[in-house]
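Deliverable D5.2: sample structural annotation.
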Amino acid sequence: GAHPGMAVSELLEILKITKQSLSRVLGQLIDEGFILQRTDDTDRRRRRLYLTAQGADLERRLTDRQSQRIADALHEAGAGAVDGFRAVLRGIINKEDRKRVAPEHPIDPSGAE
């Protein structure tokens, strides 16, 4: 994915969920071969996560499908709705996390890249 070697603690921070909530799902993804978990080289208490080839393929297929659905919906809604939708989405994000959002990638309602 976009962050190979992400620590479990970093993923928990991004998802804003508890370790218990992540544990079962993460374990299933590891067991099914989508994610590889390794101990950190410098801190043996930290676990690092990596997508396997199977996991990367799943991520690509899901992302492509979701991106197309979003592009179709934005195209249908039109430019005015896109600006309002963007404002609502930014409002949902915690203020301290908004810096992670990439404003330099505007949404094109036509679906063009």
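Annotation notes: The domain at 1-51 is CATH 1.10.10.10 (Arc Repressor Mutant, subunit A). The chain has two domains: 1-51, 53-107.
The annotation will be released with the project's public dataset once the embargo ends.
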